[in-house]
Amino acid sequence: xxxxxxxxxxxxxxxxxxxEAKLYQKIRRATPNIIxxxxxNLSVPGMPDTLCYNKNNHFFTVEFKxxxxxxxxxxxxxxxxxxxxxxxxxxxxxGLGPRSLKLYRGSxxxxxxxxxxxxxxxxxxxDACRLMLEACGPDKMVxxxxxxxx
Length: 150
Prior knowledge:
Blueprint: H1 3-16, H2 19-30, E1 34-38, E2 50-54, E3 59-66, H3 76-84, E4 89-94, E5 101-105, H4 109-115, E6 123-124, H5 125-135, H6 140-148
Parallel strand pairs: 3-4
Antiparallel strand pairs: 1-2, 2-3, 4-5, 5-6
């Protein structure tokens, strides 16, 4: 496919994608060191949007959320999934306004459900979120850093 055709197709897709799909595309393009696998799963309610794998040979999941307010909507299934799987899970939330891209640990889903975007995030903005996700892995120093993250 020629370069012009690819641009036309990409433009069309971006116009028809929902806000969470656009956020997924944005983060996927910014993180070439992470393999992103979209999960469209109706058999396991609440499962996050993506299963990811980084250069540290580490799997983790990311749930994408976009909101027009400080409140983030989660289904009871999503809350239950993150409560049952507190490690190696993240929620990437995009609000409106500056410094609105925030990364949270999945183990904080109940607090995030109650407080919304007012809750202190693990990482703010694209570069910090990218670095945090790329750093996930078995390295003990990185794991300690991740644990100390709110």
